[in-house]
Amino acid sequence: MKYRYLMAMICWLGLSGCGAVIKGEGSSATHYYLLTATATKTTSDGALPRNRVRLALEPVEIPNYLSRPQIAYRQGGNRLLLEEFDLWAEDLDQGLARVMVENLSRLTGSDQVWRLPAHQPKRADYRLWVQFVRFEMDTDGRAALTARWRLRTQDGRETENVADMLGDRVDIQNTESYIAALSHLLESLCRQIAEKMPPTVLASERSEFGKGGGGTRSQ
Questions:
Q1: What's the angle, vertex CA 70, arms to CA 69 and CA 72, rounded to 5?
Q2: Of residues 23 and 60, which shows the higher confidence score?
Q3: What would the pLDDT profile of 130-157 be if each residue is shown by its tens digit?
Q4: Considering the domain boundaries, does residue 3 fall inside one?
Q5: How many independent structural domains does the chain possess?
Q6: Within 13 A of 132's CA, how many CA atoms are on the CB side?
Q7: Domain contains 10
Q8: Which residues lie below 8 Å from residue 177, measured CB to CB, with a gap of 6+?
Q9: Domain extent at residue 146
Q10: Alpha carbon distances (Å) from 123 to 113, 120, 196
Q11: Is 179 within a domain?
């Protein structure tokens, strides 16, 4: 009789334990974060319109150590902290591309900015390649961004640059402020790229660059 009572108690405790795991009782809550587009739409201010520019963004490249759901913090030159309960709501490379398209669309005043590969092939005036080297909090509590980028016309002309940026210091315990700082750095990168684009694309140039389809990026 005692044996049966003991076994019943063990089973009840086991089921209770499973319920606690399923419900998440006693564990930290998981939070999911998104990068956001922070650029504001351009105004004319007498400048030439850019709404004729067509820009295709190639798949964004990120280092392998950032290709994970956990949000990363730099702790020293060779050490990273990965937050167990602070996660990206989407793959980081996809989030970067999504926000860059929106920022560049606002900064150029163009509704013809898209990611590659596109569902329907389009001819672009420019193709943009971006490789992120760093995109995380540094040891001083500042968001850090390092990226190589290349802007290429369809006739092969290229503009290349390296962006190395630091944001303001934020509270390392405030993940939302950290993500907001990264979003602002991403806007600064897009602004740097947009400033290298001419204000408008002449119809004659578009006709010339549009021949032969999209082309491929040279290495």
A1: 130
A2: 60
A3: 999 999 998 888 999 999 999 998 888 9
A4: no
A5: 1
A6: 28
A7: no
A8: 170, 171
A9: 29-41+48-209
A10: 11, 10, 20
A11: yes
